[in-house]
């Protein structure tokens, strides 16, 4: 599973990354984290507010820092 | 509803992160093949130019692109349809998005035609009225 963090690297982007890693580890899934920091690539995905979270290329959340529990629910779907 | 404190950057207005920006306003138009469809598009452009919000891609949502759908869900949205067929609203409904403000150009006093020769004057006629309702 590829977990993609969309954001240019602010504190909230870093927090979302940490939460996503925690969620994936607690679920025991194989994952890799990809940080997409290029603003043009982020906008090409249609994402207008960061941080954003995508799983395997599908954007799941925009403009908020999801908690590990919220991310677990997304991963488990 | 996302808390303001959880939000981060607005990608189109800044290239550095993060200043705790508020909820972004996205403007979407049906941009259809009639005078009122094209007026809806021009209204979207004018509202972007005056700083009301950012013009955004309804077709991205219609194409089921997840980033567009999630952005529209997270933002404040102004949706402009040209006529009561309401294609824009139907696209929103298909993905569970509710517009914050919704307008139909024909309900603002413009008759639907395929005459594109008066777009500027017809746009000017409805733009100020619409602005008072946002």
Number of H- or I-type helical stretches of chain B: 5
CATH architecture of chain A: 3-Layer(aba) Sandwich
Biggest beta sheet attributes of chain B: 4 strands, parallel
Named CATH topology of chain B: Rossmann fold
- Count the domains of chain B: 1
Q: How much strand content do the residues of chain B show?
A: 5-15%
* Total number of strands of chain A: 4
Q: How helical, in percent, are the residues of chain B?
A: 25-40%
- Low-pLDDT residue intervals, each spanning 5 or more residues of chain B: 1-7, 13-20
In order across it, which strands form the biggest sheet of chain A? Answer: 2-1-3-4
Element order of chain A: H for helix, E for strand: EHEHEEH
Categorize the overall geometry of chain A: globular
Number of domains of chain A: 1
Mean pLDDT of chain A: 95
Reported for the largest beta sheet of chain A, the result is: 4 strands, mixed
Structural class of chain A: alpha+beta
The percent range for strand residues of chain A is 15-25%
- Under CATH at level 1, the class of chain A stands as Alpha Beta
What is the fourth-level CATH superfamily of chain A?
Glutaredoxin
Radius of gyration of chain A equals: 11 Å
Low-confidence segments of chain A, given as residue ranges, are: none
